[in-house]
Amino acid sequence: MSDCANKAVIVGAGPAGLTAAYELSKKGQRVVVLESDPRYVGGISRTVEYHGYRFDIGGHRFFSKSREVEDLWTEILGADMLQRPRSSKIFYRGKFYSYPLKPFEALSQLGVMESALCVLSFLKARLRPLRNPKSFEDWVVNEFGERLFRIFFKTYTEKVWGMSCKDISADWAAQRIKGLTLGGAIRNALAPKRKSKDRAHVVKTLIDTFRYPRFGPGMMWEACAEKIRAMGGEVLLGRSVVACRFDAASSAWTVTARTADVATVEFCGEHLISSMPMRQLAAQIEPRLPESALRSANSLRYRDFLTIGLILREHNRFKDNWIYIHDPNVKVGRVQNYKSWSPEMVPDADYCCYGLEYFCFEGDGLWTMQDADLIALGAKELEQVGLGSAADVVDGCVIRQPKAYPVYDDDYQQHVGVVRRAMASHCRNLHLVGRNGMHKYNNQDHAMMTALLAARNILAGENKYDVWSVNEDGEYHESGHAGEQTAAGAERTTATDKNCDDCSSLRAGISG
Ligand SMILES: Cc1cc2nc3c(=O)[nH]c(=O)nc-3n(C[C@H](O)[C@H](O)[C@H](O)COP(=O)(O)OP(=O)(O)OC[C@H]3O[C@@H](n4cnc5c(N)ncnc54)[C@H](O)[C@@H]3O)c2cc1C
Fold this sequence. Notes:
Layout lengths: L5 E6 L3 H12 L4 E4 L12 E4 L2 E4 L10 H11 L3 E5 L2 E5 L2 E5 L3 H8 L1 H16 L8 H9 L1 H16 L8 H7 L5 H9 L6 H12 E5 L3 H14 L3 E3 L3 E8 L4 E7 L5 E11 L3 H7 E2 L4 H9 L2 E12 L8 E4 L8 E4 H4 L9 E10 L4 H4 L2 H14 L8 E14 L5 H15 L3 E3 L11 H17 L52
Flavin-adenine dinucleotide binds next to helix 1, strand 10 and helix 17.
């Protein structure tokens, strides 16, 4: 038994870290949360403020099949959680297509000739499918045909991942686009909408509206951090964890964090809950993990992301929440209109603020560009796609997000397995949670569920819940009931679902 005052030291004040801290604090346990960001909590789900204008890191819809998670959001923010209308489109070669795609509208937008070619290429793919599809491209072409692949899948997917669709594995496409077929989409478009209350609820909840905090997702996590502090927990910003040492004799973790003035501070805890990237944690653990585990951890890869935030004079050019830019002539991948997410993201109704999203690698040409040049690029591309005029841009900022996406390459599962097993056998009382913490491509609700279960394992004094099963067979895309799952059903078999808003391209630009 350790003599540490803290039940747990928690690395990261994103949704996972804060949820774990909140759960433990509610049960009277002492916790300390260490966050490297000097200003914001919320991690990738933070909201950045610039001159009173608010910018998400991607728009963050709040939706979960877990009733517990939905209830937790309500418990934390209450009436500050809005129900917002949803509208999104795809921009391709000068035209806008509804998203999720409406097959008949799409075909009419494409024109008679292109539509006929799409249908023919779809029929060809069905009649003569590629045997043993190996790549994302092969898989999608088999399902939808070559032409639809080029229009609705290829460009955006390649923008997001920075690699050719030929180099992305077919398994991965099958996992991401599971359940989605052109036939199904057409059937949905043709089928009369059922009038049952239940169905209406589903459609309204998942397709037409979503929940969103008045001041953006960061508001949720700031409120959560405040509640943790009010219960006696510590949430410390500007503390970058650089070493995590486990002492078997005292069964305690000592975590070293660096502050902005390069001082180091140590924190002691009976348990360590980590939401920092798995690759980073593996390198920090002492005693050192076996070489094989370190090699595997080093093989885990990430895709990075930046948002060019633009403030413009309002001319109501579009009302959608976001627009996917499939056009290959510009680098921008998606444009967010934050006023449509919540009017309170904008302090002056005569202006609006957009987020132009670019996918990149830390250190590449885009990442290292001067902010002023990026803002100029954003204004130029916004005009190029017809969503605004560069002359209306009055100000801007750049928000860089390293490790926005854990990369699912051919080997990642094997590497994650090696690291997990090594960590489990090497040291006790270590709990990996969240998106990069577990190298899982998940949304807030799944990150939160892993954290809730980790906290409950700590409270139970045993690994009662299987944190790793969260998210494993969850494919619900745009279907399913909000809040229908409870963590009670999670004991050792938890399977919250994939609700990956930020992997839309992977869903082929056809579902949300
Ligand atoms: C473009 C985009 C759009 C998205 N849209 C949605 C959406 O619509 N709905 C939704 O629910 N989810 C969405 N997500 C996913 C959501 O952002 C994540 O699932 C969620 O933030 C993961 O929470 P987390 O706590 O696991 O990790 P993070 O949010 O990554 O938080 C981890 C925290 O740990 C901190 N940290 C890391 N290393 C250290 C260290 N060494 N020391 C101290 N602190 C450290 C980080 O600074 C960070 O604050 C989106 C993601 C992206 C990229």
